[in-house]
Specification:
By secondary structure, the chain is α+β, with helices and mostly antiparallel strands. The strands form 10 sheets. An 8-stranded antiparallel β-sheet has the order 7-8-9-10-17-14-13-12, with helices on both faces. Strands 3, 4, 5, 6, 11, 15 and 16 form a 7-stranded antiparallel β-sheet that branches. α2 (135-146) runs antiparallel to α3, α6 (332-347) packs across α17 and α9 (420-435) runs parallel beside α11 (514-533). The radius of gyration is 28 Å and the shape is globular. The relative contact order is 0.09.
Length: 848
């Protein structure tokens, strides 16, 4: 069996007294963009107004402007001023049929980025074409008609009937298509922006809309060609915030209205009741025409001069260049994913209006507020690569979130998804290993312990292992507890009435679940580590003993000796035969024995009949009867293997084969944890290739992916409504973690990992913040270098290397190294001359 390099895929191959107008003019003549004040304040740091922040974690300065930070207002910007007064600017786009595209823009996004996570620069393209109908859909129908022997008569008849009208719909959409490019740059002290909107098609009608973001009270008025506004502070009602929008050109029409509905009606040619709730400026732009504007919030009415177009363009261009200079970026096949991940997570950065923090919107085509389930744990881990303050605010928000009604009375991660607590424990621990700050760890620990101590209510037979809770029947299958919504693993479990417990109304079942017990062990291990850091010795011993107990029990009872893998098992001793990637979860939890870990990887993960392939890993094994059973197989088809009828796209329903990013991230972490560095690198490459296929083709980061390459309808991305699903970034983050990462497992938590044995080509990543230092790394076939704060501190030449537990001391370094050939090592410590050594292929512990 071989697992060589990947074939074919893309992967492999508030303004000062002089006013903003004067400021912009000065910038045009000067050396660059005004330094955009970051919207995050470090703990105890004084803000621009001299007030020390009271909260023990990074929070948001006031005033601030953050483009695109309100749920799906991706063409807009949020402004927060005195006393938490709020204003929203949005750019709406009018279709030929008179519909305004102004919010919930998931399907209308055409290009994302570049953009910065703190809102210093933001760029998107939005189109009237929602891409619900594509040439691939039409091609699929033509193939059905051309090869009727491969489809049923009903399917051929359906395709024949639908194709003409769908072709007409597609042609009309392309003929009437209007696309705009929207850009923002934050300037001055963070409370003002320069913006621009460019029409990419002729006769494009847009609106600059101003209102409040969540229906708060405000009053807007026209002042010449400008819009002004004022609103009381929501936290300090005695304070008032003021807003001004100053466009370069006068609007074709404008007005202030009694409601957003009235504003929309007026902008589309109907009658809107005048008032002060919202304002809009309407423009009709020709192809290539750009409208520029300035907007600001402050404690006094801002003075704004409209920006000269050339000044605005210089500011925007300089801000765009700063995105890569100051934030996560990279080069090469894997490093290129760093830019995509940065832009994707920046797009999904939202503002929690209740707790006044930033968080990562989790998906579902636009979120709907902070989701405290397990998805958000992956978002925190991924966001930590992009912005430490964003990740810290996001995870802090999780533990400040109120429990939903009619639930177990815990705050923080939702107890109705059993893995929320384990995964959030892991996320909190990784924030600690990345940044060394115990703030979130201290905040989360009590809730996580309380959560953990409730888990034994799912031990139906009292043997120390947990059984899956009963979720009842759902559309598509039996429900479950791990976010594996309708996985066939749970199709045949039986309900057992629960006695006692926390008050959770669900009953037990008879299925002792590998995935659930792996998470149970992971949480015990993580809490033991947290307890040691917090000086809770007794707690540390208790949780370490619990981890050891689960290790023993799971290996005794859930290892199938004939099939040589971990499988779930019913209480009567019979096995659950469904094979999914959860068989690898004991690696993630550190409870697989070393020999069994090797068996899992070599005999199952790398077996193309089960999981390996150009695209990895399917949500059920390729040789399982459930694999891609949601639709027909057409092996003779020229363009696709799975297709039923228009609107259904592909057969790999999420739990019948589609590649699911959290599963991939979990399997990768397990493989990497056990030291299979060559396989981990190849696995990361395949995950990243799928992510970049979707990003390059459609600029999507979707909920799930097609496990069969070459499908013509949506290629690697399975097109649901969730084209901007934050956890998708876990696919590409695997390659970024290959290049450089914290070490959440064994060894000193302040040690780092870097380098890769098997990422294809030469890859680099820069501006990664770990433990108060900024790192960049380059890894290739013959050279790996690590720079800290701009200075190269490690260089390996002659072979590929993977380094773990790297600790740079004042006069030397220590680390564990895995090399694929003889290698020369040079380390440059903080003091003294460089230190050098030569190592052979294989694993070596180095002290220099």
């Amino acid at each position: 069996m071989t697992h060589g390099h990947l074939p074919r895929r893309n992967f492999l191959r508030t303004v000062g007294a002089t006013g903003l107008g004067a400021s912009a003019a000065a910038l045009a003549a000067g050396s660059g963009i005004a330094q955009a004040a970051p919207p995050y304040s470090a703990p105890g740091e004084r803000t621009a107004h001299g007030h020390r922040t009271a909260l023990p974690y990074p929070t948001m300065q006031r005033p601030f402007a953050m483009p695109g930070i309100k749920d799906q207002d991706w063409t807009g910007a949020l402004f927060v001023g005195e006393g938490e007064s709020r204003f929203a600017l949005r750019i709406g786009l009018l279709t030929e049929s008179g519909k305004v595209i102004r919010e919930k823009m998931t399907n209308n996004l055409w290009r994302i980025g570049p953009m910065a996570p703190d809102g210093a620069y933001k760029e998107v393209q939005v189109s009237t074409d929602d891409r619900k109908l594509t040439p691939a859909h039409l091609q699929a129908l033509r193939e059905v008609m051309a090869h009727p022997e491969q489809w049923s008569a009903d399917e051929v008849s359906d395709a024949t009937a639908k194709l003409p009208s769908l072709q007409q719909q597609y042609d009309d959409a392309q003929r009437q298509k209007h696309t705009i490019r929207v850009r923002y740059a934050r300037t001055d002290d963070g409370g003002s922006v320069i913006g621009a909107v460019t029409a990419l098609d002729d006769d494009t009608t847009i609106f600059l809309e101003v209102t409040t973001p969540w229906g708060e009270a405000a009053a807007f008025a026209l002042d010449g060609q400008d819009v002004t506004g004022s609103a009381p502070g929501l936290l300090e009602t005695s304070r008032t915030g003021h807003f001004r929008l100053a466009p370069t050109d006068p609007a074709d029409s404008s007005g202030c209205y009694a409601s957003i509905a009235d504003m929309t009606a007026a902008m589309t040619g109907a009658t809107g009741v005048p008032g002060t709730t919202a304002a809009a400026l309407r423009y009709r732009l020709s192809k290539g025409q750009t409208l520029t504007f300035a907007a600001a919030v402050g404690g006094r009415p801002p003075r704004l001069d409209p920006p000269e177009p050339h000044d605005a363009e210089q500011i925007l261009a300089t801000a765009e260049a700063s995105v890569r200079k100051d934030n996560l970026t990279g080069s090469g096949p894997a490093g290129r994913a760093a830019d995509a991940v940065r832009d994707a997570l920046s797009l999904n950065t939202n503002y929690d209006k209740n707790h006044q923090r930033a968080f990562v919107m989790w998906g579902w085509g636009g979120g709907g507020g902070l989701f405290t389930g397990w998805d958000s744990a992956f978002d925190a881990i991924d966001a930590a690569l992009v912005s430490g303050p964003l990740a810290t605010q996001h995870e802090t928000d999780i533990f400040d979130a109120d429990a939903p009604p009619n639930q177990v009375p815990l705050k923080g991660p939702r107890y109705d998804q059993q893995n929320s607590g384990p995964m959030h424990a892991y996320a909190v621990w990784r924030l600690y290993t990345k940044f060394g700050d115990v703030t979130v760890l201290k905040k989360a620990y009590p809730t996580l312990v309380a959560y953990y101590d409730l888990l034994p209510e799912w031990d139906a037979d009292g043997d120390g292992l947990l059984e899956a809770p009963y979720f009842g029947d759902r559309v598509g299958g039996r429900g479950n507890h791990l976010g594996l919504d309708d996985s066939p693993v749970y199709a045949d479990y039986q309900r057992i009435q629960k006695k006692g417990g926390s008050g959770d109304s669900r009953d037990n079942t008879n299925l002792t679940d590998v995935a659930l017990n792996s998470y149970y062990a992971l949480m015990a291990e993580t809490l033991a580590k947290m307890a040691r850091v917090l000086g809770r010795t007794a707690d540390a011993a208790r949780f370490a003993a619990q981890h050891a107990k689960i290790y023993r029990l799971l290996n005794d009872r859930l290892w199938h000796p004939q099939r040589r893998l971990y499988l779930s098992r019913y209480l009567d001793g019979t096995w659950n035969d469904v094979v999914t990637p959860t068989v690898f979860y004991p690696l993630f939890a550190g409870i697989a024995t070393p020999d069994r870990a090797k068996t899992l990887v070599q005999e199952h993960l790398l077996d193309p009949k089960e999981f390996w392939g150009e695209y990895v890993v399917p949500s059920v094994a390729r040789n399982d009867p459930a694999y891609c059973s949601g639709g027909p197989v057409h092996p003779g088809s020229e363009h696709f293997k799975f297709f039923d009828r228009y609107g259904e796209d592909t057969a790999p329903e999420q739990w019948k084969g589609a590649v699911w990013p959290p599963m991939n991230a979990t399997v990768y972490d397990g493989v990497k944890r056990y030291g299979f560095d060559d396989v981990a690198g190849e696995f990361a490459a395949r995950s990243t290739a799928m992510y970049l296929d979707a990003w390059d083709k459609d600029n999507w980061f979707p909920e799930s992916f097609d496990p069969e390459p070459g499908q013509s309808i949506m290629d690697s991305a399975v097109d649901t409504a969730w084209r901007t699903y934050s956890w998708s970034n876990a696919m590409a983050v695997q390659s970024l973690h290959e290049l450089i990462s914290d070490n959440p497992w064994e060894g000193d938590p302040s040690g780092i990992m870097f380098g890769s044995l098997s990422l294809p080509g030469t890859n680099s990543i820069a501006n990664v913040r770990l433990r108060e230092h900024t790192y960049s790394v380059s890894a290739g076939p013959n050279r790996t270098t690590l720079a800290r704060d701009g200075k190269v501190v490690f260089r390996a030449t002659g072979a590929r290397v993977a380094v773990r537990n790297f600790l740079l001391h004042p006069s030397g370094a220590s680390f564990d190294l895995n090399a694929d050939g003889p290698t020369r090592i040079e380390v440059s410590p903080e003091r003294g001359r460089p230190r050098r050594t030569q190592v052979r292929a294989g694993r070596t512990h180095v002290e220099l």
